[in-house]
Amino acid sequence: MVGMDVKPDLPSTPPSRTERTDRAERTAARRDGSDGAGGDLRAQVQQIAIRQQRFEQHLAAELDVDRAGLEAMDHLMTTGPTTPTELARRLGISTAATTLVLNRLESAGHLRRDPHPTDRRKLVVTASEESSDRAWGHVAPLIDSVEALIESLGESERTIVEDFVRGLLAAYDDATPAPATATATATARGSAGTRSDRAAPATRPR
Questions:
Q1: pTM for the full model?
Q2: Which of 63, 81, 96 is the last residue of a domain?
Q3: Rounded CA gap, 61 and 59, in Å?
């Protein structure tokens, strides 16, 4: 689970009241991002996940979308127009659930659904230019800051950071089912098959 505290090895003797209080304070600091977490590398790693969550919550609030809608918009903005079925595969949810997400986003003006250029039975989903511009207006400064930080690293520093990040990614991968598993589960749930790709009066662009 993102942001989960790393459990320390159990001590051979019960911790004292002071040790228990210190541990509780350090755990709270890791969770709320207070200065008490300073110097604790595990806490700082956790803060990356927490701040990522806060940023996504902020962006979702700015765009007035829920978490599923934000993830769908992210895919549409980064990979371009796609069919509802392909988007469902990327999100790891059923086509029926994807249709609900797209309905909400379309009602809010964040995307449009157009007939497929070669298969008129299907639809192509495209993020609206206005919503994309709004989102990038919030995301671009963060990307620029991260890029600048990376560029500031020396060669030896970059090697150390890359090794460390690679290890973190491997730890998450080991604790997470493979994407194919999630996709297969979503496909099994999606009894509607590819029906969400097919044009219907209720889902045609206004």
A1: 0.66
A2: 63
A3: 5
**Residues 126 and 52 placed together within one structural domain of the fold:** no
Neighbours of 86 (CB within 10 A): 17
Domain assignment of residue 28, given as a range: 18-63
> pLDDT tens, position by position, for the chain (206 residues)?
444 444 555 555 666 766 666 666 666 665 665 555 456 888 889 899 999 999 999 999 999 999 999 999 999 999 999 999 999 999 999 999 999 999 999 999 999 999 999 988 899 999 999 999 999 999 999 999 999 999 999 999 999 999 999 999 999 999 988 765 444 444 444 444 444 444 433 333 33
- Print burial letters for 176-201: b (CB count within 10 Å at least 16), e (below 16): eeeeeeebeebbeebebeeebbbbee
Tally of domains in the chain: 2
Give burial (CB, 10 Å; 0-12/13-18/19+) of 17. exposed
Is residue 52 located within the same domain as residue 29? yes
Those residues whose C-beta lies under 8 Å from the C-beta of residue 12, and which sit 6 or more positions away, are none
Whether residue 119 sits in one domain with residue 53: no
